[in-house]
Write a structure and sequence with these properties.
Number of helices: 3
Number of strands: 4
Radius of gyration: 16 Å
Shape: flat
Strand order of the largest sheet: 1-2-3-4
Distance between the termini: 40 Å
Helix content: 10-25%
CATH class of the largest domain: Alpha Beta
Order of helices and strands: HHEEEEH
Oligomer: single chain
Strand content: 15-25%
Mean pLDDT: 93
Largest sheet: 4 strands, antiparallel
């Protein structure tokens, strides 16, 4: 177990900062927030984070602790495995369609088109 103050590899979102500040200050966060408090990770840096989502006008993306999927508006998918040394240099969307489909389902649930 990591000690408080140790670095973490947990994937989190910028949206997590607000609920964390609320928890630190004892304020009740408003309902409907997408972010999650980072307090469990601050207390134990070895804890896992959660998927992070982002978007821009031409694409949406989901990043997990192992993969990144980029879904372009035109339908093209890019899938990268962050557990390998290839990182984001080898698109695996065609060779791992099940993984791409599973991540796309999560992405669409959070960021509908």
């Amino acid at each position: 177990m990591a000690a408080v103050g140790d670095p973490t590899q947990a994937v989190v979102e910028t949206l997590d900062i607000f609920p964390t500040i609320c928890e630190l200050t004892g304020l009740k966060p408003p309902s409907g927030l997408n972010g999650k408090s980072l307090m469990p990770i601050l207390a134990d840096p070895s804890r896992k984070g959660h998927a992070a989502f982002a978007y821009r006008s031409s694409a949406q993306t989901i990043r997990t602790d192992t993969h990144r999927l980029i879904a372009h508006r035109g339908g093209e998918l890019e899938l990268y495995d962050h557990t390998t040394s290839a990182g984001e240099t080898k698109n695996l969307a065609e060779t791992q369609p099940e993984q791409a489909a599973a991540l796309l389902k999560q992405l669409r649930a959070r960021l509908p088109q």
